[in-house]
Amino acid sequence: MNVQGGTAENAVRNYRLFIDGDHAASESGRVIERHNPATGALVATWPAGTAKDAERAIAAARAAFADRRWCGLSVAERSAVLFAVADRIRDNAAELARIESLESGKTLAQATDEVLWAADIWRYAAGQARAQHGDSHGNLGDGKLALVLREPAGVVGMITPWNFPLVILSQKLPFALAAGCSVVIKPSELTSGTTLIVASYLSDAGLPAGVFNVVTGYGKDVGAVLSAHPAVDVITFTGSTATGQAIIAAAAPTMKKTVLELGGKSPNIVFADADIDAAVDAAIKGVVLNQGAECCAGSRVLVQYSILEDFKARLLEKVRRVTVGDPLSPDSTIGAIVNETQFEKIKAYIAKGRAQNTLLCGGEPVAGLPGYFLQPTIFCDVRPGDAIATDEIFGPVMALIGFDTPEEAAIIANDTAYGLASGIWTSSVDNAIWMARAIRAGIVWVNTYLDLPTEVPIGGIKQSGYGRENGRFAIEEFQVLKTVVIQD
Ligand code: NAD
């Protein structure tokens, strides 16, 4: 990477691919320019990688796996590399957070929280590298015993989105490396900077060349090659359900394993006996965090009719305190929408909401700001099946839906193609347990929302995908079992 022009703070960063231990240009010679969605200023360029670049990276990863230069190291040696990277991420949190804010439009405060969380995930995976073990059967009769070994799955292709670039990288990469795999990653074409910086951290920490490779570029050029290539054993993908479906289809002929973290339309359900202020705060956070570009966004807020008017009043009062503005300012709660396409998509859903539902607040771009800024928007009188209650909008838009009974709440909550997250607000333990059992989702939060300790797995069911990240199960996505039966 070189840094061009201006002061260190506003310089344009020019990145290169990272293949077989070297930073290199794409064979295409072309680059993607990234402009700050809050100001329009050019902040970075990275190569527009091609199929040839992807193939070169896959060959490097395959060679590294074949000669066991990484998986052949002891787990203690692998763990040490991961701990070193965790420290580098933590020590450079200010720089990494600024880069993520400039590339994505998220607030600097939130980006800083994310970078520190990412460092914590690397530490967790570094510890887990030494704790991985298989199984054994001491006496299977006739002098036989068996070992069940956990072996690295091989070459892993990673494809990541723009909404949480470093966190999502960290939910995949250290676990795959802990398992002993080699990796080729294609980060989002909108936010590739921190992935390339982590490549340098890994190299400095002693990761052998070829074990980790980064090919920036578009999904159709690089992601599609990773998904279909016979030398890639696993694809782990986070992104939209539509792209997930394309990846499954591309992966099918080579029978590679896929791990898919996809979209959501999560219900956040508030009962009359809840702590209403806490529920209102969480409902707002559930749709404004990261400008609503959050896979677990609580974009459907279900409220028991007996408190609906009170809930609306408190919501309106509290949402006024949300400040939309300069992502670098500590006063901003919401930053900029990532690009024009996403901005227009959200505005189109707001138009559908205006046609079908009642607008409680927001609904407009923020006047006087140069970038893609939208007011937090709340619709009420929403019925299940309305556009804003059905589709993932990925913007700061809340659909308020009334219900009477827990049974009705569960039916509405489950009336979606997705099954990622959900929230329940109640002071009744019985109700919480009944609802937690009734809801079909990968995550159920009770009296909290968007609360993701590193130790617990996250992931979806239904069209939100399959496989798990974080927690002790994450490493298993990158391992295969080998049974060894021994006759004495
Ligand atoms: P996207 O699906 O458009 O793109 C994600 C990645 O896939 C990008 O790197 C893109 O270049 C690549 N890609 C696009 N087409 C491809 C193809 N045909 N083959 C291979 N790769 C291809 O998603 P996005 O807009 O970047 O991210 C938003 C989506 O991600 C939302 O739906 C959100 O819910 C989801 N998401 C899910 C989770 C989760 O944990 N479940 C977390 C964050 C985001």
TrEMBL record:
Catalytic machinery residues: E261
Keyword Oxidoreductase listed: yes
Aldehyde dehydrogenase domain location: 26-484
Keyword rRNA-binding: no
Keywords, sorted A to Z: Oxidoreductase
One Pfam family in the UniProt entry: Aldedh
Tree of life domain: Bacteria
Family: Belongs to the aldehyde dehydrogenase family.
PANTHER family for the chain: ALDEHYDE DEHYDROGENASE-RELATED (PTHR11699)
Protein name (record): Aldehyde dehydrogenase family protein
